[in-house]
Amino acid sequence: MITLTDSAIARVKNLQTQRDTTAPLRVGIKQGGCSGLSYMMDFPQELANQDHEYDCNGVKIVINDSYLPQLQGMELDYTEDLMGGGFRFRNPNASKSCSCGTSFATPKEVGEPVACS
To answer: Which CATH number fits domain 3-105: 1.10.10.10, 3.40.190.10, 3.30.300.30, 2.60.300.12?
Structure first.
């Protein structure tokens, strides 16, 4: 299970309002980034068979079974600073990450690193 901070919850709800959707937040991973794996988030209109939906303080989260080992115990935060706002991923499973904050590797899954753009 992943957790969301209060600021992440507020931002997700704000994004849902802006996009006029009640779809849950999908959190997953994909190949790419300078450490090999990158986080991905979207609001899916349909769920896949391997998707599991969780409630995190009123925000519905969807995670595909195949990503659970890499995301288990992760905390999702949202912060604003002089460079703008963004989600921050605190993943206890990451053995390596890059300064961009959205690319990582785990001891069992490294992926194919590519340059961050």
So the answer is: 2.60.300.12
